[in-house]
Model the fold of this input.
Amino acid sequence: MQIVSQKKGSRDNRQSNIELLRIVTALGVIVLHYNNPNIGGGFRFVEGTPNKLVLAFFQAAFICAVNLFILISGYFMRHSQKRDLLKPLELVIQLLVFESLFLLIKEIPNSEPLTFERAVSYYIPSYWFVFVYISIYLISPYLNIMWDKLGVRDRQILLSILLCIFSVYPIIMDMVAYLSKVKMSGTSTIGLDGAQSGYTIVNFVLMYLIGLYMRDKDELELRLTGENNPKSSKTALLLFLNILVVLIWSILDLTVFNRNTALIPAWCYQNPFVITEAILFFRLFKNMKIKNNKVINSLAAASFPSYLIHMNLLGYFGIKNAVHGNPVLLVLHIICCAGAIYLISYLMHTIYQLITARVFRVIDRRWIRRRRYAPQN
Done:
């Protein structure tokens, strides 16, 4: 999210097309949780209505959001070995501050006594991404070193193997398990209980390495041809077709197989089509010609805070009524809901920065000599 900059230097050096992609991806995460039956409740409330197709489309279009965040990190950390140990700490502090704030706001008016279980629910398990992302951030220099030691051919072979054993095979086994109605525990290449829908560091490492590979490919094309920007129209068409495949797959899961929305392979992060969707989204925005835009760059700073904040706000946007209304109005409601929550997150993040900036500067100065590490290649 915002744990790593694209380039050294000030925010003005950032590529606004990628900053725009960060914003769109964060909005996508909000949409996914709008749909989530246990968070926003979209799929729980929509049962029995034709609007289920509308939610399925948005789900198919943005299911790659988490994969995209990791791919972006891999692409822009390709040649950087230095890691700032203060960055992970800042992310955890943001999590604690924002969730503690919402705990107070929601629980003070509550007449029931605050239980330990309910208090802890504000911090976990919904924010699994934060801790897995920090893990990737800390080990990423070693992934870069490993990648540098491999030749071009070996990198291609490694990625092919990883895609087969951590993407294609887990999806196949999931389908076999459902069709045979046999629990396939112990047959997964990821964990005892299966692929866990891709919510694992295994999938994160895979997406990070794909980001490295894409950076190498772009740099090679730039050296050979002087450009690395294929036609955006072709990329957009491929992205549309990919989303269509995910949508059709998910509709089959929801109707023919009558699966619970939490168990649909089409929406698993390790799904090959979800991975491809992330690649195509990145390529589409990477090829955009957008001049440096301070508004976009500034708004992109809320991409991580919006992840922490939005789940506490979704309940105030009348999702239950919206999913039973007109399909066109539902589409507008989803878009406006995501946009409004993102802007609220931006305002809250701005206030947070004004309050904490001086504190972090003091910590930064006192820890400056020992807070960075760069493994020797």
Remarks:
- The mean pLDDT is 88.
- The chain is about 65% helix and 0% strand.
